[in-house]
Amino acid sequence: MTRTEILTRYRRLRQISKELHQAVLDVIAPKVVLDWAKRLGLARGRTVLLESEQEMILAEDLAIYLAKPGRSHPLDRYTQAARLPPGADEAIVLEAMRQAQFSLWRIERRHETVGLVLRDLLRGEEVWLVDEALERSARPGLEMAARLLKPEGFAMTARVVVPVTPDLIEEAFARAPALRRVQADALTQDPHFAISIYRAAVTTGAMDSVRFKRG
Predict the structure, then answer these.
(1) Three-state SS across 90-131?
(2) Which of 80, 131, 181, 207 could serve as a FRET partner for 215 with CA atoms 20 to 30 Å apart?
(3) What is the pLDDT of residues 156-196, one digit of tens each?
């Protein structure tokens, strides 16, 4: 496929991703999002305190992608309710959301056709990412925490990207020292890891520098 063909397909899937993330949020109780905001230090009582609009997306990401104890997964509930036609683009993206992977990533180089090649710093694998905002603004060597979904041969970001620095990582592990004993590949499956990274992002002000919006 040419660059134009890939971007056309990407934009179609990205728009569907935006709509599905919002649709899932619409069926999640506002109290759930508020509870996650409190856990990240973004709310006191019922008052939300934000330094950046990107910070609230951190709480929304957790509300979408993590199940509360004793509750079914929000994406499973939405899948059952939506009953999307098998093979439809919407069903493909929704399944990719259900299989999304949270990890630490480093931009290795530009892809020869479009997008970027990332290295998963916890699994050691490479992945082809198509993301127009990152392709324009990011440079090789940038490290970030993000949840990626792979609807086709390429991956896309979910809704938020967190710039990673040594201070942020140190803060994340300081708040959850038990994570230091978890094997690197197992960290990607541990919900506490994403929570700790997001909490550290709030504490260190990492989201203040994020100017592009994820879909």
Answers:
(1) HHHHHHHHHCCEEEEEEEEEECCCCCEEEEECCCCCEEEECC
(2) 80
(3) 999 899 999 999 999 999 989 999 999 998 999 999 999 99
